[in-house]
Amino acid sequence: MSANKSKGWFKSAFDDEMTPTVKRSASTGGEPSTKLVKRSSFGQNSSLPRLVQIDWSVDLAPKTVGDLAVHPKKLEEVQLWFKTYDRLKGTDPVTILLISGPAGCGKTITIKTVATELGYEIAEWTTPVDVDLFYRDNYDFDNGTKEETTYREGQKEQFDAFLYKTSRYCSIFEGGSDQKLLLVKDIPNVFLRDPEVLRTSLEAYQDTGASPLVFIATDTSSKKLDMVFNLFPPAVLQDFRIHHITFNSVSTTLMKKALKRITSLMVGPEMTRHYRVPSQEMIDSIILSSQGDLRSATLNVHFASLKNAPRLETETVGVLNTSGVRTGKGRKKETKLKSVGGDESITLMHALGRVFNPKFVPGEGKAEKFHHCPEDLTDAFVSQPSSMISLVHSNYVVRFTDIDDIAGAADALSLSDVIMTGCFREDQLTGHGLNLVVRAMMVHNRKTASGWQQIRKKKAYAKPSVSNHEQQLKKWGLETSSISAGLFVTDYKKYLDIIKGP
C-alpha cells in the first residue's frame, strides 16, 4: 500500500512534517504507542530539494534608496518632507503628504523604501468590502434570501477608526519601532461619491492623529475617477497644509538601471531553475514598449525570463523611406513588443519638444504635414492632460518669435482652460482640450525660436479656501460683492497689492 502511495500522481501538502505512526512495542505489553516519524512525499528520494516559491514583488523589490528608479529631485523632496516632519513633530498639526503620478512611476515603493530606511513602521489601509461573505454552510446560493446577508459598518467609519487607532496604538504583530507611517493608496469609493466626507475625516484626524499620513493617487483619464481633481483641490491642500509631490513617468535611463538590477539578481539555484536572463535586445524592446511604466516593464521581464515559455514577439520600429524600406535614420535599429505597449514610447519632455519644435514632411502636392501626428501626442498623455497643459502654459511664450503667433496660441489655451474646468463633466472633453493645445502650439508656431530653452516647472497658484476668501474680501471692503475665489486671485488681488503699496 505504501508503495502505491509513493507512486501517486499528487504531492502531499504536508512534506517534511512530523506525522504520527502507531507501532506496537513489547515493553508496553503489546499496547499501541505513538511515535513521531518524519516522512517525505518523495519516498526513497527524500534528499531532493524542496521547491521555494519566488515572489518578484518581494525578493527583487528595491531594498535601499539607491535601488529606486526615481528622479533624484523627487526622491530628495520626499526625504525632505520626512525631515520636516521630524523637526516639527508635536508642535504643528499632523503632517499629510499627497503623491500623484502615472501608474508604475514608483510612488508607493519610494515611500515604503524611504520610510523603512528612516525606521518607520508602515501601516497601509485596504478598503474592505461592505457586505460579509456568505459563511453559512447550508446557504442556498441559487434560492437564497437577502435576510441571510449581514452588513458591516460603512467605509467612512472604518476609515476613521483605522486612522485613529493605528496612529495611536501599537499592534502585537508590529516591530519595536516607535515611529509609524499611515499609507492610504486604496482610497474608499465613498469619498469619490461625496468629497465633503473626506474633509470631515481629515478634520477629525488633524485633532486626534499622532502619525504622518500619506495619500497616493494615480493619474487617470477619467475625470470622475481622478483623485487629485475630486478629492484634493487647491482649497483642501491649503486648509490641511497637505504637501503635494507629483511624480513623472520613469525615464529610459532609470528604467535601464532598474531592469539591470533585476536581471543581476536572477542568480542562485532557485532562480535559474525557473528563469533565464533575457537578451539585451529583448530588454531594450521591453523598455521601448513600457512608456515609462516600470511595473509593466517588470511584468514583461518576468514573462520573458520564464523557461519553457514562448518567446515574446517583437517588431521593428522606424520610419518608412521613399523605397518602402524601414529605416531608423542613422540610429540603431529598435524593436518593441508586438502585443503590449503603445505605438511609440515617448516621455513628457520628448512630447513637449515635438510640440514646441514641430517638424514637417512633404505631403500631397506642395502641402506639408506634421512629422509627428498631434493625435498621437495627445493619446500618449490622455491620462495626465492637466500636467502637460500646465507645462505648456509655463513654457510656450519663449518658444515663439512673433507676437501674433503668441496671441493665437494664448486664445487656444484660454479655450482649453474652459474645457478642462468643472463646467463640463464629460470625460472625453479632457482629451479634446489637450488635443486643442497640442494642435494650437504646432500650428501657430510658424517660426520657432532658435537656441536651447530649458523646460520650466509648472506654476501653481493657490486658490484660497472659502473661509480665507471671505476674510480677504472683508479686508479689502469687498464682502458685499460677488467675486469668486478664482477671480479674486487671478484678477483682483494683484491690483489690490499694487494699490496698497509697500
Helix and strand arrangement:
Elements: H1 2-6, E1 18-24, E2 32-38, H2 56-59, H3 72-88, E3 96-101, H4 107-117, E4 120-125, H5 155-168, E5 179-184, H6 189-193, H7 195-208, E6 213-218, H8 227-231, H9 234-239, E7 242-246, H10 252-264, H11 269-274, H12 280-290, H13 294-305, E8 314-317, E9 319-320, E10 326-327, E11 334-337, H14 348-356, E12 360-362, E13 368-370, H15 374-380, H16 385-395, H17 403-420, H18 428-444, H19 466-475, H20 485-500
Parallel strand pairs: 3-6, 3-7, 4-5, 5-6
Antiparallel strand pairs: 1-2, 8-11, 9-10, 12-13
Measure the end-to-end span. Answer: 99 Å
Spatial arrangement of strands, main beta sheet: 4-5-6-3-7
Tell me the strand percentage band: 5-15%
What is the residue-averaged pLDDT? 75
Low-pLDDT runs: 1-8, 13-49, 131-138, 319-330, 340-344
What is the count of helical runs?
20
Sketch the major β-sheet.
5 strands, parallel
Give a brief description.
Helices cover 42% and strands 12% of the residues.
Give structural notes.
The protein has 502 residues and is α/β, with parallel strands linked by helices. Helices cover 42% and strands 12% of the residues. A five-stranded parallel beta sheet has the order 4-5-6-3-7, with helices on both faces. Strands 1-2 form a two-stranded antiparallel ribbon. The chain has a two-stranded antiparallel ribbon with strand order 8-11. A hairpin with a 5-residue loop joins strand 12 (360-362) and strand 13. Helix 17 (403-420) packs antiparallel against helix 18 (428-444). It is flat.
